[in-house]
Amino acid sequence: MSRVTAVDLSVTIGGLKLRNPVMPASGTFAEGLDQALDFSRLGAFVTKTITRELRAGNPLPRVVERPGSLINAIGIPSKGVPHFIEETLPFYRRYDTPLVVSISAPTADGFAGLAAELSLPGVAAIEANISCPNIEEDGNGFAMRPESTAHVTEHLRRATSLPLWVKLTPNTGDMPEVARAAEAAGADAVVVANTILSMAIDLKTFKPCLGNIMGGLSGPAIKPIVLRQVFQCAKVIRIPIIGCGGIATADDAAEYMLAGASAVQVGTATFIQPTAITDIVDGLEAFCMHRDIPRVTDLTRGVIIEEADEPDLAWLNPPT
Amino acid sequence: MPFKPQIVAELATIIANDPVNAEYRHLIAECSETAAAGAPGQFFQLLCPQPAGEQPYLRRPMSIYGTSLADRKLEFLYKVTGAGTRGLDLLRAGDKLDIMGPLGKGFHLDPAWRHLVAVGRGAGLATLAPLARVARQQGVNVTAVFSARRPDLVVSVDLFRSQGAEVIVVTDSEATSGPANVERILRGLIAERRCDAFFTCGSSRLLQVQQRLGHTLGIPGQVAMEQQMACGLGMCFCCVRDFNVAGQIISRRVCSDGPVFDLMEALP
Fold first, then answer.
1. A238-267: per-residue pLDDT in tens?
2. Residue B82: its chain A contacts at CB < 8 A?
3. Residues sharing a CB contact under 8 Å with residue B134, sequence separation 6 or more, in sequence order
4. pTM (predicted TM-score)
């Protein structure tokens, strides 16, 4: 019989208090979703990535589905900063849900300038999308390596006093070192992770399914991989981790929190079920209630790793 | 004030899902009032059942073929072409179907228009069908020009005729569906003052015929466009198309800026 009668769902992520730990992932959320989803119940808003330059986006087709997953190569179409300040920001100010602004730039200076310019009233935190291709790093994202992660994070840290979240890429071979570099350079939290670089080929035409040839894999298929990366990062950093990768249900969210996440982002699942985020909030509350867990924060880093029991082989060599 | 969604994702109950001809199926489902309030030109995103050996992951966009608010009914007309529609074809009366909508911006009827011309080909006829009902309610005349590969593959002729519309069928097999013949038919309707506006869907060639006539003779119009979609709500930017807006090429999302656009701005 459960004794917990109310669950405290609030979490604090790098100085920012959220009513619950569930928020959208950048790029899978926009104003139009307010027709289907109750925006006042989200942990936070996370905008589509904003760039300084106007970007048209990638050639079509921009998405292809695979079992349990989606590959996208949208290419961050962006209307630039003035459009964001004049059109997007006033829309979100109508809610008391914190607004996290995702930014991207080709250089560390570009990131810093954009973070400074967007540290505005009504913006609660900056999420630096350092997991996209850029020119300084020869086509790789900053977050592919610890050195470039430290470099860009230091620039960002000096540019804004807002909570700074740094979004990492699952495509690096050394996620824990990259996370450590972000923490040491002043990030308040890391988002683990972005999409997994992938590809699909059309067997009728022998051509790639995407106009951009390669794209980022998301959806339930990637969950075990990114969950493992959250677990690895949690072992080496103390700043909060926001888990993001294939979360579609409250069980997925709970698993991520047990692995080490303090909050979660829901992306592709919203394309299938527009109320996925609030369904997960409700489900997490029910999960905690059922398991007698009074605070959702109690889940974070809650995975139980038993010390390996050494088999007792003493009987093989009985004392003489 | 409690949140009331204008777009719902819900389980509708299948009432019927029957073949219309060799290619098309007519699906009727019972749904909520919010879903049944869908307007002509709007669409739904359907979470299709999985056919054997296939796993459609995304929802599939499907334009509204008909609605009835009083009976809380929703109708779709679809051609079985891919994994999603093969899944839809499995549904039987009593089954549940996860529908999300109504989505997008539908057709707009100017009260000054007394005579509409609907030009469609293939599945495009399904998208135009709800117009016939609304036009009838508003006492507006409709002439429909339907194009298909063969006469036996034309769909929704009876629906249009039952709403008092005149239907002209052109087909590839009878060599009547070419742009020149369709233009001749449309010019005839214009000469008889039976064309205040064009409504079209399903053919790039026929769109261009109407754009030419519309441009030369000053006739407005609207086109319902298709594009591969993921979210259906304007978030992902995968369904963009280019439009010519006063000489400038502008990228728009078919799902949320459309799917119905100004006839003259659409690029084939």
1. 999 999 999 999 999 999 999 999 999 999
2. none
3. B40, B107, B109
4. 0.94
